[in-house]
């Protein structure tokens, strides 16, 4: 079964364009949970342009589903993780001024400093996932440095899907997921997944979690958040 973890960054982005707290990130999280979401994801960035550290602490107090916090493990980020101890921490190599996450880790150059961080987080009882491209060598290194899971960066899949040229790209995701699973790594996925491209992606066996933000919040403008979550859930768990 694939879990749906909803990324609430875009709710916070809208909230931050005024000073009086609407829409509420906490209320949005409640609605997602009521609709059956399996998890909530946030990505606090150093410039706090969407999720702020206060949001993370408030969410941690009220969540009754898995909490996934993603980001580049700066000291500021790691303080939040140590305080909150989410279910899962997804480490992402995004630069402080990145528009959005746009590539996976290069573990040849970064594995040595990530390894003790992964170990520490696991000792705190936090599941650790690494954001990766479909490169099989990177997947092997993720296992070697102790990750529990990988999150496949799905923007290239989503772009290929949009352009009707998904076949060869999709094969790379199948191979990557397969390799990771053979090595004992769980496989998550995220970025630009939406109501059109999700079903095919989830035909890859045993994708444990998809984290979806932008498209789902955009759909919520038309459908309402509760109904939008339900539509995504219908795709990932049709029965
Ligand atoms: N996974 C990671 C690591 C991300 O940074 C993001 C975007 O914040 C997502 C998944 C979700 O992507 P989207 O908002 O396109 O659904």
Q: How do the helices and strands line up, and which of them pair or pack?
A:
Layout: E1 3-7, H1 9-15, H2 25-35, E2 39-42, H3 53-62, E3 66-71, H4 75-84, E4 88-91, H5 107-123, E5 127-132, H6 136-144, E6 149-153, H7 155-162, H8 167-182, E7 186-190, H9 198-201, E8 207-212, H10 214-223, H11 225-236
Parallel strand pairs: 1-2, 1-8, 2-3, 3-4, 4-5, 5-6, 6-7, 7-8
The structure holds pyridoxine-5'-phosphate (PXP).
Pyridoxine-5'-phosphate binds next to β8 and α10.
Q: Percent helix among the residues?
A: 40-55%
Mean pLDDT, to the nearest integer, reads 96
Structural class: alpha/beta
SSE pattern, N- to C-terminal: EHHEHEHEHEHEHHEHEHH
N- to C-terminal separation?
11 Å
Strand order of the largest sheet: 1-2-3-4-5-6-7-8
Mind telling me which CATH architecture this is? Alpha-Beta Barrel
How many domains, as an integer?
A: 1
Per CATH, the class reads Alpha Beta
CATH superfamily membership: Aldolase class I
Tally of separate helices: 11
Q: How much of the sequence is in beta strands?
A: 15-25%
CATH topology: TIM Barrel
